[in-house]
Amino acid sequence: MKFLKGKKAALFFILFVIILPVFSFAQGEITTTLENPLSADTLFCFLKDMLDVFLTIGVIIAVIFMVYAGFLYVTARGNDTQLGKAKTAFLGAVIGTAIIMGVWVLAKAIVGTINAIRAPAAAIIITACP
Fold this sequence. Notes:
- The chain is mainly alpha-helical.
- 72% of the residues lie in helices and 0% in strands.
- The model has no long low-confidence stretch (mean pLDDT 82).
- The chain crosses the membrane at residues 50-76, 88-107.
């Protein structure tokens, strides 16, 4: 009985594999098109849009952390451990802001390098993004 079940399963699998391509040819032509839901048409424009969002959020967070560090500095009232904590928080906020701003400079440098290496007709045009 187990042998018969195994044969049935194998026969079903073989027929399934043979008949499955018939279903994929059921419709001759695909007439629907996909519309781009993004405002960016190229990968570069998409990455530029993502970088703009990252910079906007990053600058807001950096300002919040600088205000927090200032609050810690004001509320330390001469306590050396609290002053050290406030200075560390402010230094971290400044370093984070420098990294966030450095991302845009790095992106500009990469695009400039690619444009210098490529032929003028294949250069990346930064102002082409909407």
